[in-house]
């Protein structure tokens, strides 16, 4: 068996003096054997001795990397204390849309920025040509902002467009259907539904007629039992509360702006950014929106943190 | 750290609110609201000045450009953080697997070489020291 150190060390041992005398040795021309070997072929004796002292008979022996060095063998998320962030973002589903991240921002922010040329990338790639400082507008400059009276055309009212908010249908489903319906193929289920509707229609009509008759009878004979309905707040249905809000002149409860109204928050102050001397209708719309609560803020009365 | 962001956030919220109100004035402009409009325009300039002042406090904050792509596409930027964390964990696990496999390979190689070249491996172990088992 060949020696292991020979595999890592010099492959060929130097020829002995006897072999050289007999003419055995490296396959070279007889005349060239007398010439000294080039310096690059053999390492200098000092270096070789140092290497042998450090690695013994082994070549290519390097220092092992230190055990304190941070590698992928350790869990880097726990090493940098990012478990909380990981659980926060990866534990539950993050909503896709930008409006879920910035719910208070007005306008349609879920549309791609390339549509209306409002992308942040274009702002970086082509920064606007402007000065380095902001100076307040003088009286003469403000004359350039005199506007014509009247409403804007519909296509220009981008500020009022809000993304449609999803209603929570889960509760309705639970209350309506208690037994789970087995899954069906769409074609089969469509046909069955249509047939069922046709079959049920005359029956429903009969039932309705019977109910009406009963009601009439009850009214004549005594007080009717209260019909069970879904529980609402003290204000009744949403439509009722909206109507009441309109009558009160409250824009947000009426579902007109989607903002918090002046009735629910403090009134607009003339000095504040939400204030100003404006006509009554606009003044009502300028209710200052409540500041988003931050972790450091004191808790509101009666409402704990979410 | 958080105070810097809080101040910037507050200024940005005020600015956005001012712009919203400016939009309401302009959308149904009445001659009597010209003074209010002028006031809002000046508030806008002061708002921009306030935001510009926040720049000095945040010069050491760097934002990855990929986040802007998410925002430009109307997507939640938290998805970027989520994907980054998931990618980091997957890569971490991959590298850990490679390191563990290489450690196993090393111990097996030493084991087999010791059987065949006991003297040389003894020398090797003397130089390197005993490796802990993987």
From TrEMBL, chain A:
It comes from the Eukaryota. Residues 164-175, 205-215 have a biased composition (Basic residues). InterPro entries: Mediator_Med19_met. Residues 19-34, 279-288 have a biased composition (Low complexity). GO terms for molecular function: transcription coregulator activity. Keywords: Activator, Nucleus, Transcription, Transcription regulation. One of its GO terms (cellular component) is mediator complex. Residues 19-51, 164-248, 262-306 are annotated as: Disordered. It is found in: Nucleus. One of its GO terms (biological process) is positive regulation of transcription by RNA polymerase II. The keyword Nucleus applies. Belongs to the Mediator complex subunit 19 family. Component of the Mediator complex. Component of the Mediator complex, a coactivator involved in the regulated transcription of nearly all RNA polymerase II-dependent genes. Mediator functions as a bridge to convey information from gene-specific regulatory proteins to the basal RNA polymerase II transcription machinery. Mediator is recruited to promoters by direct interactions with regulatory proteins and serves as a scaffold for the assembly of a functional preinitiation complex with RNA polymerase II and the general transcription factors. This is Mediator of RNA polymerase II transcription subunit 19. It comes from Strix occidentalis caurina. The lineage of its organism: Eukaryota, Metazoa, Chordata, Craniata, Vertebrata. The gene is MED19.
UniProtKB/TrEMBL annotation, chain B:
GO terms for molecular function: transcription coregulator activity. GO terms for cellular component: mediator complex. It holds the Pfam family Med10. Keywords: Activator, Nucleus, Transcription, Transcription regulation. It is found in: Nucleus. GO terms for biological process: regulation of transcription by RNA polymerase II. InterPro entries: Mediator_Med10. Its main location: nucleus. PANTHER family: MEDIATOR OF RNA POLYMERASE II TRANSCRIPTION SUBUNIT 10. Component of the Mediator complex. Component of the Mediator complex, a coactivator involved in the regulated transcription of nearly all RNA polymerase II-dependent genes. Mediator functions as a bridge to convey information from gene-specific regulatory proteins to the basal RNA polymerase II transcription machinery. Mediator is recruited to promoters by direct interactions with regulatory proteins and serves as a scaffold for the assembly of a functional preinitiation complex with RNA polymerase II and the general transcription factors. Belongs to the Mediator complex subunit 10 family. This is Mediator of RNA polymerase II transcription subunit 10. It comes from Geococcyx californianus (Greater roadrunner).
